[in-house]
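Morning run. Coffee first, then this:
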Amino acid sequence: MIKVGKPPYLECSSRGDKRFSAFYARIKRFNNKSIEEIYQASKVFADGSKGLSPKEAKGKKAINMNEVAILYDRLWWIYLKENPELIEVLKNYNGFSDMFGREGCQCQAKSIYKCMQYLK
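And here it is:
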């Protein structure tokens, strides 16, 4: 589990508020694909494979991890800008958690926290 900020925490996963789960958050300008789909498809692997589905790519280390980490944060920013009413929801919380989050992996709670720090 990953927690950032201070209580009260909003659970940002499919077990919490699904609007803040990368599997459910969809970005209009990317043909309504989910953040998870876009992120996983952006990974490039040592064997040259890319454009994989979340099921195929999840948990695998890509050779472009720095770039996809930046993209992941940017996708959350785009999603919130496309859905400004969600920013108002997030303002009710000082912290964010992801019960599935692991250190060293991209985490929606961390990305959302970064966005909210910028918007304060």
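The longest strand covers residues 2-5. Good start to the day.
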